[in-house]
Design a protein that fits this description.
The strands form two sheets. The protein has a seven-stranded antiparallel sheet with strand order 1-8-9-10-6-7-2. It has a three-stranded antiparallel sheet with strand order 3-4-5, covered by helices on one side. It is of the alpha+beta class. Helices cover 33% and strands 13% of the residues. InterPro entries: HODM_asu-like.
Length: 487
């Protein structure tokens, strides 16, 4: 070991020098740690200047959904075409606008899923949406299926312990549009509502034209494949034949959203990504089945604003919903189902246009609430699907309101006890959102009595710990009950 004397340096000098070096190294290490914190797993490709410019309050500006543009290579018209994925920076800088009218004749502009204006032109009308979306076509209904006997599946989307969340379920491609014996009645009701309410329940922004056409083509294709005995196209797909209504629609001359309204008994809301903040805004809608609101109130509003009336949405769901929307892939649609109790079949009820703020009565027994009986109470379920359209990148809600008499639950195993517990012990503001107090009281008494009946009959173990059913959103034995009517 060399001594300090041999080196001609005293031990004291070494100590001082060492201390100085340690201070310099420590300071440098702290500087690098602060400067590069969180970048230890630096990607092999340099971070783009564009990403460095993203503001903290705009976290979704460069967040785009997964693209299936590569599927174009499997289509004959795109043979040998360049179908590589488009970089997020280009999708941002060359985005088709949603705050102004897009010009599809201009080349080099892109949808959020990475399809260019040139791609859209080349795809033309009615491309292979199963390939583009990654979602298979539906199976046709059985040959002995009879729409005059068909009933909705008995949704019972009750969950315990109950708290507010999206409650997403697996999507079944056979059930995107569900037709039943109520088809003509619902279509007639919707036509009357449009005559009465007009743009309050039906609107479309110019930026949504392509998304609405894509949606129309996908829905009509579904109908023709799922219900071939009732719907068909002409050979060139310019005409759509509806045998249930004995109508033929010229698809080249009719607005796409109007085509849907004239043929499909379901509601649609089209959310589109805003190029200035990456959030999703309502740009087109047909919504007839609203309770307490009408869809035009939310025209051009972002997702968060639309749901301000929903309990706990801001505190528990807003962030995750925005993030989920930004990442939703076209091949992963989802289903969900919400519920409420009403003292009448409240298909559409909302404040009058001239009404003062909050001036609206939900109950059909306003001022006579004590007269409500269990026979008046309806279970309303809103069965919904959410899916991203593959080419436009729009996210579409479609939903339908379905009603059952409350006493239908009497012979459904476990259901009365589960719903009674929710009404009795659920978070008060959430339950108040789902039914008014006089309805809750009447329903609880009836459900409690039915629950005791089921225990007495041995249908439900007395020691059963109430919880969400494995069959949710249905119940044990639901298929047997449903099939008694569906064929």
């Amino acid at each position: 070991m060399l001594s300090s004397k041999i080196l001609g340096v005293s031990t004291a000098h070494i100590s001082v020098a060492g201390a100085v070096v340690c201070i310099i190294l420590f300071t440098l290490q702290r500087f690098l740690t602060v400067r590069w914190k969180g970048r230890e797993r630096k990607p092999s490709i340099a971070i783009s200047k564009e990403k460095e410019k993203v503001k903290p309050d705009l976290p979704y500006l460069l967040q785009f959904p997964p693209s299936r543009r590569h599927v174009l290579a499997t289509l004959p018209e795109f043979d040998k075409a360049d179908v590589q994925a488009i970089a997020p920076e280009i999708l941002k800088s060359q985005a088709l606008p949603t705050v102004t009218t897009p010009d599809f004749d201009k080349e080099g502009f892109y949808t959020p899923t990475g399809f260019s204006t040139q791609d859209i032109k080349k795809l033309g009308r009615f491309p292979d949406y199963a390939a583009l979306s990654g979602v298979r076509d539906p199976n046709p209904v059985p040959e002995n299926w009879d729409i005059t006997k068909a009933k909705f599946r008995p949704y019972r989307p009750f969950r315990w312990g109950y708290h507010q969340h999206m409650a997403l379920m697996k999507y079944d491609p056979d059930w995107w549009v569900e037709l039943t014996s109520s088809y003509h009645t619902i279509m007639s009701t919707r036509r009357s509502l449009l005559t009465q309410h007009g743009s309050r329940i039906f609107f479309q922004n110019p930026c949504a034209t392509h998304a609405c056409r894509e949606l129309m083509e996908m829905v009509l294709s579904f109908l023709c494949k799922r219900y071939p005995m009732h719907f068909s196209f002409s050979s060139d797909q310019s005409l759509f034949h509806n045998n249930l209504l004995s109508t033929t629609t010229n698809l080249l001359q009719t607005d796409p959203l109007q085509v849907l309204f004239d043929n499909v008994p379901e509601d649609y809301a089209v959310m589109m990504r805003n190029e200035t903040d990456g959030l999703y805004y309502l740009r087109a809608a047909i919504v007839c089945s609203s309770v307490g609101w009408y869809v035009a109130q939310h025209r051009d509003a972002p997702l968060k604003t639309i749901h301000t009336h929903v309990p706990d949405y801001e505190s528990k769901m807003a962030f995750s919903m925005d993030r989920w929307f930004s990442k939703l892939s076209t091949e992963a649609p989802v289903s969900r189902c919400s519920w409420g109790l009403e003292d009448w079949e409240a298909f559409h009820t909302s404040p009058d246009p001239d009404a003062s703020s909050g001036e609206w009565n939900r109950s059909a027994f306003n001022g006579r609430e004590e007269e409500v009986t269990v026979g008046d109470i309806k279970l309303r379920c809103d069965a919904q699907t959410l899916r991203r359209l593959p080419v436009s990148g729009a996210v579409v809600f479609n939903f339908k309101a379905i009603f059952w008499d409350l006493d239908e639950l009497r012979n459904e195993r476990f259901v009365p006890q589960l719903l009674a517990k929710m009404l009795k012990e659920g978070k008060r503001d959430l339950i108040g959102y789902k039914c008014e107090e006089h309805v809750r009281q009447v329903a609880m008494r009836a459900l409690g009595a039915w629950a005791e009946e089921q225990v007495g009959k041995g249908w439900v173990p007395r020691e059963w710990e109430v919880g969400t059913l494995e069959e949710s959103p249905f119940f044990p034995g639901w298929e047997g009950k449903w099939r008694l009517f569906d064929f």
